[in-house]
Amino acid sequence: MFRALWIEKTEAGQQACRLAELPESSLPSGDVTVQVAYSTLNYKDALAITGRAPVVRQFPMVPGIDLAGTVLSSDDARWQPGQAVLVNGWGLGEVHWGGLAQRARVRADWLLPLPAGLTAWDAMALGTAGYTAALCVLALEAHWAAQGVQPGSGDVLVTGAAGGVGSVAVALLARAGHRVVASTGRPQEQAYLRSLGAAEVIDRAQLAAAGKPLQKERWIGVVDAVGSHTLANACASTRYGGAVAACGLAQGMDFPATVAPFILRGVTLYGIDSVMAPQPRRQAAWARLARDLEPAMLQAMSRTIGLGEAPAAAAQVLAGQVLGRLVVDVNA
User: Fold this and answer.
1) Whole-angstrom Cα distance, residue 202 to residue 81?
2) Burial class of residue 303, CB neighbours in 10 A (0-12, 13-18, 19+)
3) Using an 8 Å Cβ cutoff, are 252 and 121 in contact?
4) Domain 128-271 indexed as CATH 3.40.50.720
5) Residue 324 and residue 162 in contact, taking contact as beta carbons nearer than 8 Å
6) Buried (b) or exposed (e) across 235-267, using 16+ Cβ within 10 A?
7) Is 267 within 8 Å of 242 (Cβ atoms)?
8) CATH of domain 2-114+296-329
9) Which of 1, 106, 157, 183 lies 20 to 30 Å from 248, alpha-carbon distance?
């Protein structure tokens, strides 16, 4: 038997989440069985647990889009018992049982070896949020390299900066030598954001309302985890030839923008998908995280909760009350 968060539909058709004891025989099909050590609580996990959005597409479901642990058994020669591994995305917690459990069974092609220098806790302190931030930064850096843009040549905006994606993006960009401007709705977290490397902190209200199609040029690049008017305003104020990496929708899925920044200033908008990204891109992102983020910084931006605490914490995530990252110890 193993413990897991269990999402099911009630007789009334409502979604309900509870802590359950499940037999190992109930695990879904897959090539590799993993003893999970840690998972995370991402924004998408919070939506799934609370039922606030139709994230879960099959019931019953074990949520959790991330996991890190060790291989218990494998039908694939690439993975051996005792090997430290991690998984992000691939439909975990949506169409395939996820990581908020003590056991998981997944496809061999989904696994990555735990990067050298990272513990299972470290990997989940980063999780999909950190990995997505790294994908954003890598996309911007490839764009800047093609344009001949050097670190320090202009401001880089990070929206939703006090959240998981934003925190890691601020840290990675600052470490690379960029002047980072952090946008947040939590001005009380200014000291936290500056500790990650932000040179300036602005109120999200400056970006959150409808704005002009073209605004004063400021950003050489943007990491946006918010969407809606915030993304539109970020594009409208990006400098000629700059780039915006969009990866989230905390404000909304809409994009109330015009083509003006793209055809008059040559701004490029990159869509960043973390769920189905190919393995080479994943490996590059995780290598960057392992290289550039110190364990002490991960400790500063993360806290650990037990599996049973995840449902209550999910509501806090959606209310914007969680700073940085939540690591879930599935055995606590």
Assistant:
1) 48
2) middle
3) no
4) yes
5) yes
6) bbbbbebbbbbbbbbbbeeeeebeeebeeebeb
7) yes
8) 3.90.180.10
9) 106
DSSP string of 209-223, one letter each residue: S---SS----EEEEE
d(CA 39, CA 87): 10
CB 151 within 8 A of CB 127: no
Mean pLDDT of the chain: 95
Q: Is 251 helix (H, G, I), strand (E, B) or coil?
A: coil
Tokens 């550039």 -> residue: 292
Looking at the chain, the whole-number percentage of residues with pLDDT higher than 90 is 87
- Residue 294 tokens, joined: 């110190």
Domain-by-domain residue ranges, the chain? 2-114+296-329, 128-271
pLDDT over threshold 80, residue 12: no
Question: pLDDT at position 187, please?
Answer: 85
Question: 239 vs 68, 74, 236, 251, 267, CA distance in Å?
Answer: 40, 50, 9, 23, 7
Q: What 3-state class would DSSP assign to 225? A: coil
What does each C-alpha distance from 278 to 89, 124, 183, 256 come to in angstroms? 11, 20, 30, 30
Place of tokens 């985890």: 225
pLDDT digits (tens, 9 = 90+) for 251-277: 999 999 999 999 999 999 999 999 999
User: Residue 295 has what pLDDT?
Assistant: 86
8, β-bridge pairs: 16
Residue 144: Cβ within 10 Å count: 22
